[in-house]
């Protein structure tokens, strides 16, 4: 069963040419798919269409069999910048999606604390965002996206601003968290090695269209050493070539 089902969606900003052009994409329940492509090729627009933040000019999106007509609580979204509220302590930032919907319970607080603990920043819950490093802020944004127990996680280059070591740590933590919850994930990145490390399948986007799809038949859980594996590097090369290859006539 496909948890996310995108059929023939297109989108144009105003009267301009389509920046997402007839994209089809199915993600089975619990699968982790990555979208790679150069800056400006339409990745963020596609993610916003999947989230119901933009309305497609053609085609449709279904999540868990139901048409998407706006943002919904069973979908978590992580933006490229952590977008934390700097006047709220870390724990309150994580609880934000719950507090926007109603009262925050003691269980909600306990769950937020547990998520921060799982993400390795349990001791920082009383700090303010400006007192955190970039990697710690990203961890808070991930906890905030997970607090509602989403079945689908949409992530837009969430680690792009981080140093390589921190990024690799967060990749491992993210894989552990989503595997434990059978979360379906669509993750946008321009980093090919990140995409191959995380994904069951990598889609390469160019000029608004998906121009290649690459399976990643590597078992899970995936260890950091995988990055030195010949098979892993061969898959990265395949993806790189798909990104470089000219569009078919
Ligand atoms: N709000 C907007 N209004 C007009 N054009 C936009 C807007 N947002 C993005 N675009 C254009 O749409 C194209 C795709 O953008 P985007 O989806 O952000 O690409 P990516 O995330 O791959 O960098 C780009 O050419 C960009 O300039
Ligand atoms: Mg983008």
Instruction: Quickly give the structural class.
Output: alpha/beta
How many β-strand runs? 10
- Report the average pLDDT across residues: 94
Shape: globular
State the distance separating the first and last CA atoms: 34 Å
Fold and architecture overview:
This protein is 35% helix and 25% strand. By secondary structure, it is of the alpha/beta class. The chain has a domain at 84-149. The strands form 2 sheets. It has a 6-stranded mixed β-sheet, sandwiched between helices. Strand 1 and strand 2 (18-28) form a beta hairpin. Helix 7 packs across helix 8 (230-244). It starts with a strand and ends in a 5-residue tail after the last helix. The model has no long low-confidence stretch (mean pLDDT 94). Residues 13, 19, 37, 39-45 line the site of adenosine-5'-diphosphate (ADP).
Write the layout of secondary structure elements.
Blueprint: E1 2-12, E2 18-28, E3 32-36, H1 43-51, E4 58-63, E5 66-67, E6 75-78, H2 90-94, H3 96-101, H4 106-118, H5 134-146, E7 152-156, H6 164-181, E8 184-189, H7 192-198, E9 201-206, E10 209-215, H8 230-244
Parallel strand pairs: 3-8, 3-9, 6-7, 7-8
Antiparallel strand pairs: 1-2, 1-4, 4-5, 9-10
Helix pairs in contact: 7-8
Task: Kindly list the characteristics that best describe this protein.
alpha/beta, four-stranded antiparallel β-sheet, binds adenosine-5'-diphosphate, binds magnesium ion
């Amino acid at each position: 069963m496909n948890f996310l089902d995108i059929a023939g969606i297109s989108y144009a900003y105003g009267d301009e040419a389509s920046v997402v052009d007839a994209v089809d994409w199915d993600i089975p329940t619990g699968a982790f798919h990555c979208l790679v492509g150069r800056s400006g090729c339409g990745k963020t627009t596609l993610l916003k269409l999947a989230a119901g933040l933009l309305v497609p000019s053609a085609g449709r999106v279904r999540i868990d069999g139901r048409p998407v007509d706006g943002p919904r609580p069973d979908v978590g979204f992580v933006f490229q910048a952590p977008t934390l509220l700097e006047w709220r302590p870390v724990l309150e930032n994580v609880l934000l999606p719950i507090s926007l919907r109603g009262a925050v319970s003691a269980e909600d607080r306990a769950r937020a604390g547990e998520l921060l603990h799982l993400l390795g920043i349990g001791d920082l819950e009383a700090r303010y965002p400006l007192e955190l490093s970039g990697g710690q802020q990203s961890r808070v944004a991930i906890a905030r996206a997970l607090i509602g127990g989403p079945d689908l996680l949409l992530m837009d280059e969430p680690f792009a601003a981080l140093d390589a070591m921190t990024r690799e740590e967060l990749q491992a933590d993210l894989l552990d968290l989503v595997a434990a919850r059978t979360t379906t994930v669509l993750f946008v990145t321009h980093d090919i090695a990140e995409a191959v490390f995380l994904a069951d399948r990598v889609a390469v986007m160019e000029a608004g269209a998906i121009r290649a799809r690459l399976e990643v038949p590597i078992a899970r859980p995936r260890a950091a050493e995988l990055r030195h594996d010949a098979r892993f590097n061969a898959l990265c090369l395949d993806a790189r070539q798909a990104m470089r290859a000219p569009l078919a006539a």
